[in-house]
Design a protein that fits this description.
The protein is mainly beta. It has one domain. It contains two helices and six strands. The protein has a six-stranded antiparallel beta sheet, covered by helices on one side. β5 and β6 form a beta hairpin. The longest helix is centred in the first third of the chain and has 8 residues. The protein starts with 10 loop residues before the first helix and ends with a strand. It comes from Larkinella insperata. This is NUMOD4 domain-containing protein.
């Protein structure tokens, strides 16, 4: 039997996976491939893979009714609704990630 190709996820679906939480508001882990880029420094192009990463939020959980922007981005100039902080489960390093640089999440390609 032939394997069916995976359906590509939209940016909105990608954000939903990144921001998924359990009943207690703790972010759920996911697998992710993404490309690095820094326009100011004109660097990047590396492909990073985290087998198990989580959406990094202050205090480790989301309160009901709290928006994703408030949970992830401190009010500052240049904050974007398309960026999220993520962290590998086995690391303390936090990376700010623009979702448009995500290549694959949970084994599914992203448009």
């Amino acid at each position: 039997m032939r394997n069916q190709p995976l359906r590509m996820l939209s940016w909105k679906e990608c954000l939903a996976i990144l921001e998924a939480t359990d009943a207690r508001g703790v972010p759920k882990p996911f697998s992710i491939f993404f490309c690095t880029a820094d326009q100011q420094k004109q660097t990047g192009g590396q492909i990073i893979h985290y087998e198990k990463a989580v959406w990094h939020v202050k205090n480790g959980r989301i309160n009901k009714g709290q928006s994703a922007i408030k949970a992830t981005v401190k009010p500052r100039q240049g904050a974007s609704k398309w960026t999220r902080n993520i962290r590998a489960v086995d690391s303390d390093q936090i990376r700010r990630l623009n979702i448009h640089l995500i290549l694959e999440i949970n084994g599914q390609p992203v448009k």
